[in-house]
Amino acid sequence: MNVRFCPSVPANTRPASDLSDRHYPAVAEGIVQYRPPNLWRDLDRGYLAPHLMPVQEFREAMSAALAGAGWQALAYGNNSGPVPLKEQLVANGMVGADIDNICITGGISQALVLLAGVLATQGDCVAIEEPSYDLGAALLRDAGLHPLCLASDDQGPVEGALAECARQAAARGSRLAFAVVMPRHQNPTGRCLTTHRLRELVEASGSLGLPLIIDDAYGEIDFRTMGSVPLPLPDVVSDAPHLVVLGSFSKTLGGGIRLGYLVAARPLIARIERFGWTASGGGFNPINALAAAEFLRDGYRQHVRDLTHALVMNRDVALAELAKLDDPGLTVNSPSGGYFLWVRPATVGDSVALQSAFDTARVSVADGARFGSSGSGMFRLSFSSATAEQIGQALSDVVSVLRKESDD
């Protein structure tokens, strides 16, 4: 099997919740989006496991934000977001731009819908990767846009793919409004675009006069630095005026934070500040933004280091269990960040057998076909949503099922 391992690292030192009897601890009805069916192990969804969320630290940060800002924390906020968080993004090296080029968002999903309203009109086309995050494509469709897939290989969109999408849009009597790519630790494949491929996209979008949205949702979850410092995007992204970079706190703090940021040229930021959705609400999620500013000031970087160490351990446990299949035709990536393994059986028959083994072992994974036709027969496996012990046990059960079926 084609896998590569990183050296083992210490586990997250934060005390873990008691997850011994169930995959998730008990929750009150109607609070969380999803809970796996009883007796199933969830390696499907890109969630942070409960023990990886900084509940106590964020509680303290929220208390500090309320103490510092007082009534202002509960008031309508600055349209482009609280200046304290923008300043901390720059001070922490997470954004290499002036604070006037930053807009605080309600997360990347909200930012994409916001940009669809600012940059496009209903009926326009948008270019997305293939395969790509299925719910991202769905929210663009819900905004009245038509996604077109960028022709891609294992390294990402190929040369000329963006121009071809523009031709397809014109053939539909439409226009290409913008393109969206995830250059680092892409969901679902985990791939990173080479600097050469990213430069091609930047130059092609510039020549077409097309905004290029860089979805950097997993940029902070980078195993190459082990969370010690933010790893900047390649220089080709730095100064191009048609680029928009999106970042998220959902992948480091938990999805319920609903907080992210958008970095763009000042004219686009000004348009966003005047947009009805922004002006009506006084920005997006200002109280959580103020709390995040406090956390970035003290504690956030240590949390990201702890989180990254835990995720590397989870990834390595998953790779080690899958390697026990001893199947030379099975390819599994070893991602340098993010949440996911991309599992590719050699044949359709192998894919069917692997899905059957997942089902028999009561382990839920994501069917690759969800993310586009090129993902058919493949699987996305999350290593963020459980403990290393749970991941190891779940995949050990899958291996046992496959071995038993082979012996029979």
At a glance:
This protein is an alpha/beta fold and 408 residues long.
- What structural class is derived from the secondary structure elements? alpha/beta
The helix fraction, in percent, is 25-40%
Q: How many separate domains? A: 2
- Beta-strand proportion: 5-15%
If you compute it from the alpha carbons, what radius of gyration comes out, rounded to the nearest whole angstrom? 21 Å
CATH topology-level fold name of the largest domain: Aspartate Aminotransferase, domain 2
Shape: globular
CATH architectural label of the largest domain: 3-Layer(aba) Sandwich
Mean of pLDDT: 90
- How many strands? 15
Low-confidence sequence ranges: 1-23
**Any idea of the CATH class of the largest domain?**
Alpha Beta
Task: Name the CATH superfamily assignment of the largest domain.
Answer: Type I PLP-dependent aspartate aminotransferase-like (Major domain)
Biggest sheet: strands, sense, closure?
Answer: 7 strands, mixed
The largest beta-sheet arranges its strands as 2-10-9-8-7-3-4
Distance between the termini: 23 Å
SSE pattern, N- to C-terminal: EHHEHEHEEEHEHEEHEHHHHEEHEEEH
Describe this structure in words.
The protein has 408 residues and is of the alpha/beta class. It folds into two domains: 41-54 and 301-407, Aspartate Aminotransferase, domain 1; 56-300, Type I PLP-dependent aspartate aminotransferase-like (Major domain) (Aspartate Aminotransferase, domain 2). The chain is 39% helix and 13% strand. The strands form four sheets. The protein has a seven-stranded mixed β-sheet, sandwiched between helices. Strand 7 (176-181), helix 6 and strand 8 (212-215) form a beta-alpha-beta unit.
